[in-house]
Amino acid sequence: MVAAPQLQDAVVTRMERHGSHFFTIGLRAGSIARQAEPGQFVMIAVHPQLAADSGFLAISSSWDPLLRRPFSIYRVNSAEEEIFLLGQATGRGSRILAAAVPGQVYSVLGPLGRPFRVEPGWKHLLLVGGGAGVAPLVFAGERFAARGIAVTVLFGFRNAGSVIGWEATSAWATSRYLVTEDGSAGKKGLVTDVLRRLLASASTTTTSTSSSGCDCGHGPAPTPARFDAILACGPAVMLKATAELARAAGVPCQVSAERTMGCGFGVCLSCVLPRPDGSYALVCQDGPVFASEEVDLSG
Amino acid sequence: MVAAPQLQDAVVTRMERHGSHFFTIGLRAGSIARQAEPGQFVMIAVHPQLAADSGFLAISSSWDPLLRRPFSIYRVNSAEEEIFLLGQATGRGSRILAAAVPGQVYSVLGPLGRPFRVEPGWKHLLLVGGGAGVAPLVFAGERFAARGIAVTVLFGFRNAGSVIGWEATSAWATSRYLVTEDGSAGKKGLVTDVLRRLLASASTTTTSTSSSGCDCGHGPAPTPARFDAILACGPAVMLKATAELARAAGVPCQVSAERTMGCGFGVCLSCVLPRPDGSYALVCQDGPVFASEEVDLSG
Amino acid sequence: MRRRRSISLASPVDLSVDLGRGLILANPVMTASGTCGYGEELARFIDLRQLGAFVVKGTTLHPRVGNPPPRLVETPAGVLNSIGLQNPGIDRVIAEKIPFLARLGVPVIVNIAGDTPAEYGELAARLDKVSGVAGIELNISCPNVEKGGMLFGADPQLAAEVVATVRQVTRLPVIVKLSPNVTDIGIMARAVVQAGADAVSLVNTYTGMVIDVERRRPVLARGVGGLSGPAIRPLAVYQVWQAYRALSDTDREGGGGGERSKVPIIGMGGITSARDALEFILAGASAVAVGTATFVRPVTVLEVVSGIREYCQRHGIRSLRQLVGAAHREGLA
Amino acid sequence: MRRRRSISLASPVDLSVDLGRGLILANPVMTASGTCGYGEELARFIDLRQLGAFVVKGTTLHPRVGNPPPRLVETPAGVLNSIGLQNPGIDRVIAEKIPFLARLGVPVIVNIAGDTPAEYGELAARLDKVSGVAGIELNISCPNVEKGGMLFGADPQLAAEVVATVRQVTRLPVIVKLSPNVTDIGIMARAVVQAGADAVSLVNTYTGMVIDVERRRPVLARGVGGLSGPAIRPLAVYQVWQAYRALSDTDREGGGGGERSKVPIIGMGGITSARDALEFILAGASAVAVGTATFVRPVTVLEVVSGIREYCQRHGIRSLRQLVGAAHREGLA
Ligand SMILES: Cc1cc2nc3c(=O)[nH]c(=O)nc-3n(C[C@H](O)[C@H](O)[C@H](O)COP(=O)(O)OP(=O)(O)OC[C@H]3O[C@@H](n4cnc5c(N)ncnc54)[C@H](O)[C@@H]3O)c2cc1C
Ligand SMILES: Cc1cc2nc3c(=O)[nH]c(=O)nc-3n(C[C@H](O)[C@H](O)[C@H](O)COP(=O)(O)OP(=O)(O)OC[C@H]3O[C@@H](n4cnc5c(N)ncnc54)[C@H](O)[C@@H]3O)c2cc1C
Ligand SMILES: Cc1cc2nc3c(=O)[nH]c(=O)nc-3n(C[C@H](O)[C@H](O)[C@H](O)COP(=O)(O)O)c2cc1C
Ligand SMILES: Cc1cc2nc3c(=O)[nH]c(=O)nc-3n(C[C@H](O)[C@H](O)[C@H](O)COP(=O)(O)O)c2cc1C
Ligand code: FES
Ligand code: FES
Q: Between 20 and 30 A from A106 (CA), which of A12, C49, C95, C319?
């Protein structure tokens, strides 16, 4: 049973902007930091909060944008009761949030959703991430590696300027593969190019050194037997391709899906993803992490 | 002819909070700083601005609160092309603005409205201000004193904790009178109590030392002949009482009025104040400074 | 000037509301249908027993999968939704959903939607004796389904027919949820009250559309959706104001002799705080519901309860009833 | 998938709009009546000649002082106003206000409001030969005056009567400004077009109310007001969508043989940027107007012009006409 989500006023402890679009924000959110599991997310209000109005309850400083925004938990610093989010400033809400300053207070709801599920006996995980989608994978890698599981990382980005979350993986990854669309960092190509080779080599060899090598500058790294599971997060088209390759290779695959979310906790019914049987799953409650065959990722 | 107002993106140069409600904000706004005259105001968007949306023109980061807020120009630092506003955090908009941080960019429209008018030959002005209403008077005193006009200051506040703009007057005021409603700073009472005495003594003596003395701790100051005019700004009830006392004493009185403003530049017709003939004046265009007999201050 | 009695802050305030047919709520604040599911999700954030009533998601005779996504798009200070009444159907709602709320003891109002008057009747009949169900809300104003919905909500005769059908099969209080997408909501309010409604609730969402200019088509899969949230509040307050005027001369069916009884109005649309709720009450609502704000801040509905209580204490109001419609009486001076 | 022709960014885009009776605007963007006075104030911020047209403040036969304050109150992402048609009367507008705009050469559309059909006729007749006046907009939808206004705007027969009266006395293009406070705006649109309107503009403001809970009465002196601004945009886009559908089968009077001519719709309600304007165009508007956004950012209306041009260039659109109503045609997949 996943712990109950909390509504917390969280102080910004750190705010860093990376390149022109990404930012990482640290928030002091004790009970979320304590309970969060990899794959879970928070809903954060994009405007800082003000104190209560005299006599009346001021909910937010502004009603536009109205909705909170979902962000995966990227890292947790338990000692400091901090959570970190890795955000991409794209639309109105995330750009407003990107203006946060340490010391300001933001309202955060979480942790929400179902986390990645690692089964007993799993020894080697492959994390496949694209863009800001690497966020929950970094948390997952850190946590699961600490439990002694081998973790291979395969991250893809548009170009060198948008590489994010990569440094954080060096502390615990068994092997790391970096690709960019234009080849300006790591190998040129898509994650699926590398994934295809990784799965092929893993299924034909029992113990091997990665044939494609590690493009992160650390030289070839040893790759254990085969992957017990793939955990993936990123653009829908990447998730779909990853799921298909995984299925073909017979490797269980969990994907973290994204959908417009009105509430994040199951009451608005907006975040639906079709199941193969035509009914709908709620990304916020049944997900965001799904076994890839549970949902129709193109729906 | 008053110069044309400008729409400017102004960087916050300074932000200070005073007590629990007041703040002064410095903004780099070249053409406004150069053109502004005492009594004029700006309309400021309460949310910081974001860069333009790719391909589309992003106007503001948020549409709620929608309207700009009017603030009098409190001081001008011409050398640095800075304007200062003295704000009171009361409702939603001003409280959001009060969260401004140096370096952020705010959209400012101004200078707007008609300034205080000082006629040739005027030698002594009395400034009567209450609460945040002292803002345009500080600018007026500074400017007119620099032109060699004697300026007496009479400011009233609720209590010691809400005294604001008082320090700034010491550099140029001929005499200063401070009152608070609870007597926790200056003399206990209302500005009208002191005003009544000032006008009485001024009209009976030609050259006098203020009979009520200066309550600001600087000891009695010399008061020249009589006041050529009173410039007043503050709560409506104070303005009305001041205008009446001025009329009785035969001293010309200009008041800076406040009204909800939709636009600040004459197109929404929301900021109306009745004239004695039943027609309406626009506070943003015909004012905010009016000769006290031009408008019905209770309307 | 109004006189203010100086009473202690701790003095008790009577917040109870009589919705008719014996349904008395401890306080005037409820959840708005479709914004709080069937209670289990919200129960993780608040104690549902402190609500005046819990209004469940719109329920139909047969299960509905709802509309394809996207179902929701944000608008300035609002959201546009097209959920399409996704729900497990009345039988499963009765078997699996209502017991949870019934156990808590919070009055449950079931929001129902049908394609025909007969379907509304059938739904109401099945609910009539279900333990825990305190009232029925007829959703005749959903803009997000092909049939029924809006049609009934915009036609006084059709609406009256639905109400009359339901009235015959249930002794539960019947609340009719009105659409604001009409020229005169007062006509609709009178029609349903004359047909036997015990109360009216308003507003449901306003029909709207957002277009994705890059893809040159509506964002929502079904094109149109229903607008809710703070953006609509001034419109909704006005609709309650109008409905209150229209109902001022209309007796509640069975109101009997004696004092003229007003038909209670449940006001909603963009409520985010006690202040907002009080706007509706002063405009004529006896009770209020919180919808979209729950998405943003799940504790809102209880903050509204405590905020209203504080307001009454601060203003020396002993009974909330004093405030209902007070903005009409204080006049425009 | 839509094909995108790759053309140079500098390629010219035809933004012109034909509003009928020879009134051709250089671009589709105008000011909304009552939000830009008679031009002098706005001219301090923008070059009015770059506008498609300038629509002046609602003008009446006799001068009006307007409603007592407060006349405006902010709402979530909107404003509620009750100005009450303050204006100096038609004679002074003709003598003192129009010459300024006429000299600039921007097409002037005069928004008029009367208490009776005859008054509309009288106003139109006086404007018929005034130099610089390019069109007349009939405001049959103002919620802020006692008589006329809304009454005409909610009744297709009364509205048609007003239009027919005006049609007889002027050869200027007649635009009818519709109220959104109706069950079906399509019925109103058809009625006024059949009565001789050359174009329709929509929406005027939505009737709303804000209550001051501390004073327990409406904030606005007249109680109700009209809601405008971003808050209403999704509602207004939908109304344009509906009007476009309704008018798709309705010929423009005098449209003559040959190709079926659509009646142009001027869309407005919450436009703050080119993106917003494009929503209206894609929903079926041939032109758009910017109202409340001008208060917040006086340069908006010109930013919309340049933003639309950029959009067309980026998407390889040679003529804006290709986009009008395109969201209907691209279908909902
Ligand atoms: C479970 C989950 C976890 C996520 N984790 C991350 C993360 O760790 N880092 C990160 O950068 N992004 C993450 N996203 C995506 C992020 O929520 C969106 O980028 C963000 O909501 C966009 O908001 P906006 O205001 O910038 O865009 P706007 O275009 O202004 O948003 C308008 C509306 O669309 C919704 N929306 C827009 N894009 C998306 C999207 N891709 N997914 C879901 N809703 C969207 C918004 O929430 C909002 O309701 C996650 C999404 C989900 C559902
Ligand atoms: C010409 C002029 C100069 C001003 N100069 C100053 C100044 O130097 N320092 C200062 O602290 N205040 C000044 N004010 C008052 C200041 O504009 C208001 O306090 C402020 O707009 C309140 O906004 P809010 O968001 O805090 O209140 P809210 O209650 O959220 O505002 C809601 C609406 O009411 C309007 N409003 C509320 N109170 C006032 C008011 N007193 N006057 C006008 N509109 C109001 C707001 O502009 C807004 O449109 C001035 C007002 C005017 C008209
Ligand atoms: C996502 C969503 C789903 C809704 N579903 C229903 C419903 O099933 N039945 C109903 O009567 N109203 C439904 N409504 C309308 C709300 O109950 C309420 O009338 C409306 O949202 C206005 O209130 P608000 O602004 O507080 O949300 C729904 C509203 C939303 C936003
Ligand atoms: C303060 C104000 C005054 C208005 N006056 C008029 C008017 O005189 N005549 C008219 O037809 N519409 C008038 N309108 C309506 C606008 O022209 C426009 O239809 C409406 O505001 C919606 O557009 P917007 O959201 O861009 O403001 C007025 C609107 C506002 C806000
Ligand atoms: S986001 Fe509301 S139900 Fe999932
Ligand atoms: S504030 Fe708009 S006219 Fe004065």
A: C49
Q: Do C79 and A66 touch (CB under 8 A)?
A: yes
Q: The domain B124-251 is classified under which CATH number: 3.40.50.1010, 2.40.110.10, 3.30.460.40, 3.40.50.80?
A: 3.40.50.80
Cα of A63 to nearest chain D Cα, Å: 7
Instruction: Please report which helix (H) or strand (E) contains residue B6, including its range.
Output: strand B6-18
Q: What is the pTM of this model?
A: 0.94
CATH 2.40.30.10 segments of chain B:
6-112
**Among A58-72, A203-217, D213-227, which stretch is predicted with the lowest mean pLDDT?**
A203-217
Q: Note whether B101 contacts A101, CB cutoff 8 Å.
A: yes
Ligand 1: residue of A84, A90, A116 to mutate (most ligand atoms within 8 A of CB) is A90
3-state secondary structure of C137: strand
Domain-located, residue D96: yes
Q: Is D36 a catalytic residue?
A: no
Both tokens assigned to A202: 């893993």
Instruction: Pick C231's closest partner by Cβ from D2, D77, D275.
Output: D77
Residue with tokens 């919450």: D270
Average pLDDT by stretches of 10, chain B with 299 residues: 81 88 93 95 90 38 94 94 94 88 91 96 96 96 96 95 93 95 92 91 48 45 70 95 94 95 97 94 96 88
Q: State whether D66 and B5 contact (CB < 8 Å).
A: no
Residue in chain D closest to C328 (alpha carbons) equals D217
Q: C6 in a domain, yes or no? A: no
The verdict on residue C62 lying in a domain is yes
Contacts of C237 in chain D (CB under 8 A): 208-211
Q: Which residue has the tokens 């909500």?
A: C153
Taking the C-alpha atoms of residue C231 and residue C237, their distance in angstroms, rounded to an integer, is 12
- Measured in residues, chain D has a length of 333
The two tokens of residue D189 are 């649109």
Catalytic residue among D61, D124, D142, D166: D142
* Residue-wise pLDDT tens digits, B42-68: 999 999 886 443 333 333 579 999 999
Domain made up of B6-112: CATH architecture: Beta Barrel (2.40)
Domain limits, CATH 3.40.50.80, in chain A: 124-251
Average pLDDT over residues A265-291: 95
B259 lines ligand 2 (CB under 6 A): yes
Amino acid found at B146: A
Number of independent structural domains in chain C: 1
Give the confidence band of C143 by pLDDT, cuts at 50, 70, 90: low
State residue B212's pLDDT score. 42
Asked if A7 and A109 count as a contact pair (C-beta separation under 8 A), the reply is: yes
What backbone torsions phi and psi does residue B212 show, to the nearest 5 degrees? -85, -10
Question: Is residue B241 within a helix (H) or strand (E), and if so which, with residue range?
Answer: helix B236-249
- Distance separating alpha carbons of residues A145 and A170, to the nearest angstrom: 11
Angstrom distance (rounded) from CA A148 to CA A299: 36
- Could you tell me how far CA B228 lies from the centroid of its own chain? 19
The pLDDT of residue D97: 95
Q: Whose CA is nearest to atom 37 of ligand 1?
A: A260
Task: State how far the Cα of D8 lies from the Cα of D47, in Å rounded to an integer.
Answer: 27
Substitution target in B63, B67, B298 with the highest count of C β-carbons within 10 Å is B63
